[in-house]
Model the fold of this input.
Amino acid sequence: AQTVTQSQPEMSVQEAETVTLSCTYDTSESDYYLFWYKQPPSRQMILVIRQEAYKQQNATENRFSVNFQKAAKSFSLKISDSQLGDAAMYFCAYRSAGNAGNMLTFGGGTRLMVKP
Amino acid sequence: GAGVSQTPSNKVTEKGKYVELRCDPISGHTALYWYRQSLGQGPEFLIYFQGTGAADDSGLPNDRFFAVRPEGSVSTLKIQRTERGDSAVYLCASSLIRGVMETQYFGPGTRLLVL
Done:
């Protein structure tokens, strides 16, 4: 079974600064997908960014980028120019690319606080 | 509607009661998922529907939990003889295809409190 670990329960960043959230995972599969979801107090999970394991190039979406290290099984999220609206819980998630199922396996989350 | 909707938003019940939680997926999405998120934790998979059938129910914790999707659209998660440990946020997600770029879109969840 796959596991996802987020070792930082809480992180804090000054507005306009850069912050990196860590995520590691354990799998024996070679093909899979990784995601970062944001969960504000409204509870709705919002997709931030996704990465296919077969792609070496790191995904980027505006101020959000990832550092995907497949050999190390690491998938960190970098938020540049942090904004107050970025404050939320962030969850890293794994999904198998095979026939094992389409379920997402989530980490325990990191609470991001943004200081004005 | 434009997104996944879930009703009710909040549900308070007494131990031993029966509850039903409803999920309306994005129109046209064939896949539907239920997850449970306990306080301070990440969501955990419960069950996955492809069309009307449950393709994977390995995450259901016990036989008190059951889910249906009779017409391949709306789904209902049913919990019998509720226990205090069932208190959590129940999230529903839907997706269009199972494939390379499948993305699960989540609803706002139902917060269930069992007293």
In short: Chain A has a mean pLDDT of 94. The two ends of chain A are 41 Å apart (CA to CA).
